[in-house]
Each structure stands twice: as C-alpha cells, then as structure tokens.
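dumping the sequnces here before i forget
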Amino acid sequence: MNTLWAIPAIAEEAEEKGKIFDFNLTLPIIVAEFLLLMLALDNLWFKPVAKVMDERDEAIRQKLMGVRDNSDEIKKLQEQAEAILKAARAETTAELNKMRRETAASLDAKLQESRQRVEKELAEALANLESQKEETLRSLDKQVQELSDQIVAKVIPF
Amino acid sequence: MQIEQLQIFEIDNPHQVSSVEVGQHFYWQIGNLQVHAQVLITSWVVIALLIALPVVATRNLQTIPTGLQNFIEYVLEFIRDLTRTQMGEEEYRPWVPFIGTMFLSIFVSNWSGALLPWRVIQLPHGELAAPTNDINTTVALALLTSVAYFYAGLHKRGFSYFGKYIQPTPVLLPINILEDFTKPLSLSFRLFGNILADELVVAVLVSLVPLIVPVPMMLLGLFTSAIQALISATLAAAYIGESMEGHH
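..and the predicted 3d for all of it:
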C-alpha cells in the first residue's frame, strides 16, 4: 500500500522523461560510432591480421610443394646409389670369378705337369727295372749254362 | 536505474528498502535535441577498448604467433568462420568487418556492463551501465543490420531482389513485407530485453542480499550476454546471406 503512495513522489522527482523507450539523438550517434568503429577495426585489426594469416598459409603451402619435389629428387638419388652399388658388386664378383678361374687353371696346369713328370719317372723306372730284369735273366741264363756244363762234366767221366 | 541503499534505522516506508528506478537517464542537450549521455560515455569506453587491443597486439606481428597475437588471430578466425558459415565461401569476405564489428561491439559492451565497476563514477542522474541496455543502441544496431541486408540484396541482384517478396508464392507477400519489420524489431528487443533484464535482476538481488547470492546470476549474465552477441552477429550474417542468395 505504501508503495503506491510512493509512485507520485517518484514521478515528481523525475521531471525529465525517465522512460525506457526514449528515442532521441543517441540513436544516430550510435550508428555513426558503429560505422567509424567498423572502419577503424577493419584497418587496425582485420586487414593486418588477415594478411599475416594468409601469408602464413601461403608459405606453408609453398613448403609442402617444395617437400614433395624434394622427395622425387631423393628417390632419384637413391636409385642412382643403388645402381652404382649393383655395378660395383657385379664388378667385384666378376673379378673374383676370373681370379678363381685363373688360379684353378694354373693349379690344373701344375697338377698336370707334375703328373706327367711322375708318370715319366715311373715309366723310366719301369724301363730300368725291365732292362735290369732282362740283364739278370741273361746273366742267369749264362750262369745256368755254365753250371749245367760243370755238372755234365762232373757226372759224365771220360 | 538507481538503487537506493539505506541504513536499517532510516527506513520509514517499505518502499524505501529497495526502490529500483528504471529508465533514469543522464541527459545532455545538443541544440534542441537530447542524448542519453550515459550511453555515449560507456560506448566511448567500449570503443577505446576495442581499438586499444589490436593496436597493442599488432605491434610486432610474427609468422609464429604467441600470446596476444594468437588471441586476436583466434578472434578473427572465429568471426570469419561465423560469416562464412552463414554466407558461403564466395561472398563472405567483404562482410567480415561488419559482422566482426557487430559481434565485438555487442560482446564488449555487454561484458563491460557486467564486469567493469561503473558505479564508482557517480552521475547526477541515472548511472553508467552497458550501452546495450538502452533501446537507442539496440535499435541502432538492428537498423544497421536491416540496411545492410537490403544493400546486400540490391547490390547483388539489382531490382530483382524485390522478387523475393513473392517467393515462394504471392500469397505470402504480406508476410514477407511484415518480415522486413519484424526482423529489426526482434533483433533489437532480443538484445535490449536480455541485457536490461539481466541488469535489473542483478540489481534487485544485490539490493536484497549483497553477498553471495547474486554471483550465480552474474555468471549466468556473462554467459547469456556473450550468447546474445553471438546470436546478433549470426542472425545479421544469416539475413545478409539470405538476401544475397535469394530463395530457390
């Protein structure tokens, strides 16, 4: 109840309009302030920061492209290296094989040579033995002949 | 609005305990027109804050951002994304400043009203608060949005823009025309009502129980006022995008 009495007192105090829906020059001033703020923010904030961000994106994109090219080069270098390795390996095995063949051949030759020598000496020795045997047989024959002559002389007295 | 705090022994009438006076303005006279000075003063503070931030932060822009530069880049990215979502990839770029200013000005206005200790500065009449608690501000922003989407539509499609009033069927013509009035109306009143009501509730709670009880309400106020800024900006972008694309 008391509150109701207070309302006229409050109304008198507010001889200026104390309204919620009080439109005045404030509205166009706020419009002007907003437009000026928009210009200021665009030039101070949006444009510079957008520039930095876009430049960064572009730089990253460039780097990605560069990286992709590099990987092609790397692959080429790798292939080259492998080719060189393969050639070197082939060369060394060829060398090795050649060496092996040569040593085998020389060994064979030496073996052949010594075998021949041995055979020759063997043949010589055999021939020697043969001749000695012949000789011994001949001498034996002569001795047998002499012995048999002696026996005959002894047995048949005359 | 003004809350009168009185000592217990001074109270004769209950109405003195908490008298919340709404709609008290601090008037300045310019010629034979009046302005709400409290709105202008707080709006100047908001503008100062909004200009000081990028000036400080863009002083030494580096490719790898840190600290403040990181923050302003995040905000710009947020605004760009918001605009792009509503308007599409091809056409959003020129509108980023408008939507960005809309979002930032409303956001900083609302939060400055909630967080800054305005009561420290005593005005002869009325008090300082968020500039968006005044109908002039919110209607100004809503009218700007209206003009923006009209301009966008006319600039993009010429006079065939007015063909959208009879889409999809001419029966809807009165409703489409009505929409041109309800859009700014709803934009302005949504923002105005939210901010003013939040301030009133917090003021009443503070005048009744000044210690702990108003704090959840204040936090809710921070949250809802941020949402209101986002909604205002998103709707503005949506209206502009809609008027540029036309109906299918």
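Confidence is low (pLDDT under 50) at residues 13-19 of chain B.
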